[in-house]
Q: What sequence folds into this?
């Protein structure tokens, strides 16, 4: 009995090893492919097929590769892009993708890290194709949504065939000018704004001059009409009573010439004071 104990213990350990190599668990958020001597045999719990649970395989013959069944994130930072207007931009993007065909994915990428690396290469190429045909203003703000959809469609066309994955979403998180060109672009923008401001000021000054000239012209016309009307009325009054007209003109002259506190020296018999000397002016 004592001599057989090591064999019993060894057998139990071997049995446990066989059992542990015969069963595997596929979680709800995972999918698996089973390989026999490295050759694909079957897929378990792929997207669209709910098959999580406990499974058996042939020990030491079959192996299992587990992949994520959920959406996987990929971040691309600092991608240099030359827009159609030859403006250089630095673009950050996020890609959400999912393994749809685990067999093709295994054959093309082997691991999730390898798949992410190949998808990053595809994404860089798709971004250059889409963003390289758009202006920098469109990339920064104008048509970003349309460009993101274009990149997503381009990626799906390549990734589905090459990797067996589906690109769920593409987002351009940030698109900025590189530091070495920002000051040059800002200076150009300032120059353009100054030109616009100068043009607006010139147009305003031109309009103001036109308005002033029109107002002066109208003022002169009204003044002329007033003077003419005044002369006409005065002529009518003078024609009716010449003596009263002469008297009125003298009174206006007194009122204009003799301001309060202003000394004036004239002879008493001056014609200027003829209405002060006699009752009827000559």
A:
């Amino acid at each position: 009995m004592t001599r057989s104990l090591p064999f019993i213990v060894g057998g139990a350990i071997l049995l446990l090893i066989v059992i542990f190599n015969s069963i595997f668990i596929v979680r709800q958020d995972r999918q698996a492919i089973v390989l026999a001597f490295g050759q694909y045999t079957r897929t378990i719990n792929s997207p669209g097929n709910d098959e999580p649970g406990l499974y058996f395989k042939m020990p030491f013959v079959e192996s299992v590769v587990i992949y994520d069944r959920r959406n996987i994130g990929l971040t691309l930072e600092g991608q240099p892009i030359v827009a159609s207007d030859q403006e250089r931009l630095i673009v950050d993007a996020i890609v959400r993708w999912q393994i749809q065909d685990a067999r093709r994915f295994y054959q093309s990428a082997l691991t999730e890290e390898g798949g992410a690396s190949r998808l990053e290469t595809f994404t860089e190429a798709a971004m250059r194709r889409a963003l390289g045909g758009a202006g920098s203003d469109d990339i920064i703000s104008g048509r970003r949504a349309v460009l993101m959809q274009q990149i997503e469609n381009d990626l799906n066309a390549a990734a589905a065939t090459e990797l067996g994955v589906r690109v769920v979403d593409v987002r351009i998180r940030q698109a900025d000018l590189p530091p070495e060109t920002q000051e040059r672009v800002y200076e150009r923008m300032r120059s353009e704004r100054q030109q616009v401001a100068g043009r607006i000021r010139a147009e305003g000054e031109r309009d103001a001059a036109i308005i002033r000239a029109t107002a002066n012209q109208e003022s002169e016309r009204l003044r002329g009409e007033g003077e003419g009307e005044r002369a006409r009325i005065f002529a009518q009054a003078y024609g009716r009573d010449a003596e009263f007209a002469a008297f009125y003109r003298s009174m206006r002259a007194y009122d204009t010439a003799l301001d309060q506190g202003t000394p004036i020296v004239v002879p008493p018999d001056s014609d200027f004071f003829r209405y002060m000397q006699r009752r009827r002016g000559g």
